[in-house]
């Protein structure tokens, strides 16, 4: 979210606006703290104010005197130390931002630590009397948001095969920050992974915590003492993880669970067993392969292909690539006569094309701004595709200053303006780790699911990218072997159904997790209208 206020001049109006945005949840859903880039940016700006207040105000003024005041002052000292260490902000006099906007909220490691600090310190009873001046209690992160952040960080590690030791040292996909995860944070990531049956990831994080604990320098010794962790405690957690893995081993192998090892394990030294992860084996054997859906390897191959595509590996053959082309189109509609439509063919059959510069920056920013107040967590229903993003829904009439239907009609030739041919427009905002699992945009129908959509069957998807993504966030088609890079103001068009009305299962696709920055997109899905 591109706030226009400065961190130091938030003011009453800013508080009022953000209270309206975040004070209530749509449809009774939890507020999307760790999933929404808008909210993460809000937390980052707000924490800067909290930091400046605690840093620049005399402790006696804040807490008075006495033993209770000393305890509160100690909490403040620990908070300031963790904040400064995380964001590399150490000056005692300079109060301006020393880094670019969204520095914290756009980085998974820094954002995870920020959410942790809110729960650990800013909501701490010792600081409530101070922070309540700035913050309404109903809009602060909870333990649920810490878990969301851990899940997102582990998802990045799993999909992109990041090394836990590098993440713990502030390195992520070639980018290094000042932030380093503490022994306690590494252990908690391991425990969360263990509880989630992410066995390979759990052992990695326990190993990192153990190695940090063994580091013999003054700062690490002090950190180890503060964490309360002992070597035997971490080793016991690793042995418990190994026992749980081995108990579930046969079922995990049958299911192709890539969070498992390819054999039973008995060694707590992770470096000796890292090469045995089932993920490494299946990626080597299945990436680039396509099997019939009745083949037991089908789902595993889809997952392997998705991960390969998210890593930026195009799986098309050279023969398939040679058939692709780019062109300028003036024939789709008279609108394009003077300013030809720029089209790139990404896949021949089924046809998938990307159209460039069909919208402008002003339109994209307006649409994002309009979505801020309505963003909510995706509905948590059993049949829904697993996804981690914040969503807003609009009808075309809701956005008179940024109508999309007319432009879609110019591009596709479909008559959608003023008709019931389009479903509600969906804007999706992804923060770090934000993703969507493989899915179809059209819903398969069969004897077991005879209920029809009263509006008709979904037939076409028009996906608009509203921003450039710093890292990650590709759209992957695992059965077609292609990925699509989000390009601001471009759109991707494909048909979700075949001519006989059946779902074109080749168009199964996924949104790869965002590594850094944020991703904004807009879905526009057409239906064939039932006339019965």
TrEMBL record:
<keyword id="KW-0847">Vitamin C</keyword>
<keyword id="KW-0223">Dioxygenase</keyword>
<dbReference type="InterPro" id="IPR044862">
    <property type="entry name" value="Pro_4_hyd_alph_FE2OG_OXY"/>
</dbReference>
<dbReference type="InterPro" id="IPR013547">
    <property type="entry name" value="P4H_N"/>
</dbReference>
<keyword id="KW-0732">Signal</keyword>
<dbReference type="Pfam" id="PF08336">
    <property type="entry name" value="P4Ha_N"/>
</dbReference>
<keyword id="KW-0560">Oxidoreductase</keyword>
<keyword id="KW-0479">Metal-binding</keyword>
<feature type="domain" description="Prolyl 4-hydroxylase alpha subunit">
    <location>
        <begin position="350"/>
        <end position="527"/>
    </location>
</feature>
<feature type="signal peptide">
    <location>
        <begin position="1"/>
        <end position="27"/>
    </location>
</feature>
<dbReference type="Pfam" id="PF13640">
    <property type="entry name" value="2OG-FeII_Oxy_3"/>
</dbReference>
<keyword id="KW-0408">Iron</keyword>
<dbReference type="InterPro" id="IPR006620">
    <property type="entry name" value="Pro_4_hyd_alph"/>
</dbReference>
<protein>
    <recommendedName>
        <fullName>Prolyl 4-hydroxylase alpha subunit domain-containing protein</fullName>
    </recommendedName>
</protein>
<dbReference type="InterPro" id="IPR045054">
    <property type="entry name" value="P4HA-like"/>
</dbReference>
<dbReference type="InterPro" id="IPR011990">
    <property type="entry name" value="TPR-like_helical_dom_sf"/>
</dbReference>
